[in-house]
Amino acid sequence: MAALRLGSLPPATLAATTATKKCERFNGGVKVVGDGGGDNGFPPFLPKEVEKIKDPFARNLARRIKRLPVQIGCSESYIMSSCVQPLVQTDPSPVVLLHCFDSSCLEWRRAYPLLEESGLEAWALDVLGWGFSDLGSLPPCNVASKRCHLYQLWKSYIKRPMVLVGPSLGAAVAIDFAVNYPEAVEKLVLINPSVYAEGTGNLAKLPKVVAYVGVSLLKTFPLRLYANLLAFDGIPLSKSVDWTNVGRLHCHMPWWKDATVNFMASGGYNVVSQIKQVKQKTLIICGENDKIVSNQLAMDHTSYHSTTSDLFLITILKRLLFELPNARMQRVPDSGHLTHVDKPRRVAKLISDFARAK
Questions:
Q1: What is the CATH number of the domain that holds 279?
Q2: Which PANTHER family does this UniProt record tie to the protein (predicted)?
Q3: Domain that holds residue 279
Q4: Is the pLDDT of residue 216 over 50?
Q5: Exposure check for the chain: N or C terminus, fewer CB within 10 A?
């Protein structure tokens, strides 16, 4: 990561920054030096493996990925942070799209253009420690750092209360952020939310050598392909192979392994106690054939009691609907865990309608 001092660079200049590697002092201000476009229009900071991807939606969205300078806390250092930035600013609240655990903004390759077509101002962000940011000098990738990074990006560029969308573990990221920075979040959309896991559990206690071995396994194509087959509802093998390449593209970033181990060792997300503190209107979207989250059972030792005083077992999503003070649920038929990928038109309409509703 390049440590950048940007002084008082005007917001309009920052918003226009694309694929930048470094910033230099120039006439008392800052001169932004860009990389220029790579082959086939891909930003040169993307791994070369992007050329092998066949999915036209992924290729198109990859060409639009930018790096914007985002301040690190109260310091004068900046992270060149990857995202897909909207082409125009619109009147409705901006929609900000997070992604799942160990993924990237390319998750939104099929739904993002539909959100734009509907007239929404949509941002697709890479959460700190994942995606395609410049993290050469690795910052902490714990929950507090991810939250702070998202807030600084919002404060610098988005600047208005947003509709924050989080799929799977991204729902935990969204809940954590909404509770800590309620002024930044108008509404929440949670897609097949994974919010009851108590962090990374015993993985946080692994010796570093073992943790690195485990993370190396996480990157392997066979494991990613297996996860892909679980996540999607009945797609052809050829498409699953290509989508696996899309899903693991960020794993080729040179800092990925260190950032992932750092996150695991930090303990990860545990937002169970924060769920009831969410004040924003919330839409829960769930794929009816989700094999990863929706059919799991949740145990709560304090809030749920049966008439026989036994623990009352309910599904994750029903428990979440009960605990969120202002939430409703929408099921999507014939869809798996990554509903925003395999049913993009339906998800985009749900998000658009919810964002515009009073």
A1: 3.40.50.1820
A2: ALPHA_BETA HYDROLASE DOMAIN-CONTAINING PROTEIN VTE7, HYDROLASE
A3: 82-356
A4: yes
A5: C
Pairing state of beta strands 162-167 and 185-191? parallel
Distance CA 102, CA 225 (A): 14
Residue whose structure tokens are 């609240």: 93
Taking alpha carbons only, the member of 4, 355, 5, 10 closest to residue 156 is 10
Query: d(Cα 191, Cα 316) in Å, to the nearest integer?
Result: 12
What is the rounded average pLDDT for all residues in the chain?
A: 84
Number of structural domains in the chain:
1
Position 123 in a domain: yes
Please name the residue that has the structure tokens 């997070």: 98
169-180 vs 143-153: helix axis angle to the nearest 10? Answer: 70
Asked if residue 280 is part of any domain, the answer here is yes
CB atoms within 10 A of CB 27: 6
In a domain, residue 32? The reply is no
Closest CA to 177 of 232, 114, 240, 128: 128
Residues in the chain: 358
Q: Please, what's the b/e burial string for 101-134 (b: 16 or more CB within 10 A of its CB; e: otherwise)?
A: bbbbbbbbbbbbbbbbebebbbbbbbbbbbbbbb
Residue with tokens 């734009």: 116
Taking the C-alpha atoms of residue 31 and residue 25, their distance in angstroms, rounded to an integer, is 6
Q: How far apart are CA 17 and CA 6, in angstroms?
A: 12
Does some domain include residue 58?
no
Residue written as token pair 């250092």: 77
What are the phi and psi torsion angles at 244 (to 5°)? -65, -40
Alpha helices in 197-343 (DSSP H): 208-219, 221-231, 237-247, 256-266, 316-323, 339-342
Which positions ≥6 away from 126 have C-beta within 8 Å? 81, 82, 83, 99, 104, 105, 132, 133, 250
Give the torsion through C-alpha atoms of 256, 175, 165, 80, to 10 deg.
-40
**Token reading at 110:** 């099929």
Taking only the tens place, the pLDDT of each residue in 238-279 is 999 999 999 999 999 999 999 999 999 999 999 999 999 999
Residue 311 predicted with pLDDT over 90: no
Q: SS3 for 139?
A: coil
d(CA 315, CA 279): 22
User: Between residues 294 and 349, which one has the greater pLDDT?
Assistant: 349
